[in-house]
Amino acid sequence: MDGGYMLPEFGVAYIKRVRFFRHGQEECVTDLIAAACYDVSGVGEGLYEPPSKTDEYQMRTRTLQKFRAIIASAVANTEGSGKNTYLLLGPIGTGAFGNSEKMIAQLFNEVLNGSLMGSIEAIRYAFEQIWFVSTDNLDIFRQILQ
Length: 146
Hints:
The protein has about 150 residues and is α+β, with helices and mostly antiparallel strands. The chain has one domain (about 15-145): 3-Layer(aba) Sandwich (Leucine Aminopeptidase, subunit E, domain 1). The protein has three helices and four strands. It has helices at about 55-75, 100-110, 140-145, and strands at about 15-20, 25-35, 85-90, 130. Strands 1-2 form a two-stranded antiparallel ribbon. α1 packs across α2 (about 100-110). It is globular, with a radius of gyration of 16 Å.
């Protein structure tokens, strides 16, 4: 690790009311969640010591904890009923950090379709819409998250 911001291993930075401007004066306000996946690329640029690449159980378990923190922070900071809440997720950690796209998609699927924070239904119902966005191919996410 060579600098940057520091987050607890299973924590997030939640930034409220970030203002974006488009086409001059048109603006959009959104909240942002920053989190970090493990760097399993071998380069060693990540914030945390990753589990061994051969210990799939630890990799999945610890990454799942991170994703639960991301979704829990989104739910906890939703204003009102969540009717106008859109959750935008991406293939976190699958680029330079070398995490498996399939594993990341499976773990997001597990979190979104499970109970969280005492919910009776799947936590995905806390959001009006959930979008996966990326400049890369999202086919594996489409297949797993149907």
